[in-house]
Specification:
The protein contains 7 helices and no strands. It has 255 residues and is mostly helical. Among the domains are: 31 residues, no CATH class; 134 residues, no CATH class. InterPro entries: DUF2458.
């Protein structure tokens, strides 16, 4: 037996259509129409009894309705409970291990105060180091450059006064006299004075700056006795060391 789901509108409509076209429905409709056409004083029917047509139509309707399928209970789905996942713990950045404490600096020997005799073995070792030899050669090249510049400037001063003497002699010859002793002495004194000023204001500062620069550079490459100083005894000791270096590396000149 098939049943029609009453919750299905299409199924219910199809069921009603079948009822309207059934013989029981047509009989019931005909019986009702005949009842309405009878006189207004109908004969009372015996209590507890029904007309055959009514009984037949009701039975047929019940039969048709009973043939309708009962609605299927809704399928029960397991209730899904959403449980929020616990938040994942925030990963803290790993702290890098503390670096080991730096090793104490190695105490280097102070070679500044070595005597000349104590410095000789170390100078022999330094002479075998190409980097040291190259550094000393660069210092010598810088010194040569400064010396050339100072010499050119001094030569220019001398040429200026030579030109003044030449002009004075030419002027004296034009008037039939020679260069007077007084004029010659004046030119000579002016020349000497300018040279002294040049030495004091130009040569000595340039030379002192060069010496200090060389002392610091030689100290950085661990040449014994070398450090910036203006003390006479220290400078004399340094000069002896430079003379040894000149002989070892084939240089000329020095601090």
């Amino acid at each position: 037996m098939s049943f029609t789901n009453i919750n299905d509108p299409a199924g219910v409509k199809a069921l009603l259509d079948r009822l309207r076209t059934s013989q029981a429905w047509q009989t019931l409709v005909t019986a009702q129409a005949q009842t309405q056409e009878q006189p207004s004083t109908p004969q009372p029917a015996p209590s507890g009894t029904e007309t055959p047509a009514s009984s037949t139509s009701v039975a047929a309707l019940l039969s048709q309705l009973n043939s309708a399928p009962a609605p299927a209970p809704p399928a029960e789905h397991p209730r899904q409970v959403l449980v929020a996942a616990p938040p994942s713990p925030t990963k803290q950045p790993e702290t890098p291990p503390s670096p080991p404490p730096p090793a104490p600096y190695a105490v280097t020997e102070d070679v500044r105060s070595l005597t000349f005799q104590q410095a000789l073995p170390r100078l022999a070792q330094l002479s075998d180091d190409p980097a040291v030899v190259s550094a000393i050669e660069r210092l010598k090249q810088e010194q040569d450059k400064v010396e050339r510049e100072l010499w050119q400037e001094r030569t220019a001063i001398r040429a200026k006064y030579e030109e003044k003497v030449k002009v004075a002699k030419t002027r004296a010859s034009l008037i039939g006299t020679g260069l007077s002793k007084h004029e010659a002495e004046m030119l000579s004194q002016a020349y000497e004075k300018e040279l002294k000023r040049f030495d004091a204001e130009r040569v000595l500062p340039a030379w002192d700056g060069l010496v200090t620069s060389q002392q610091a550079a030689l100290q950085r490459i661990c040449v014994p006795t070398m450090f910036p100083t203006a003390v006479k005894n220290d400078r004399e000791r340094q000069q002896r060391v430079i003379q040894v270096l000149e002989g070892i590396v084939g240089l000329a000149g020095g601090v």
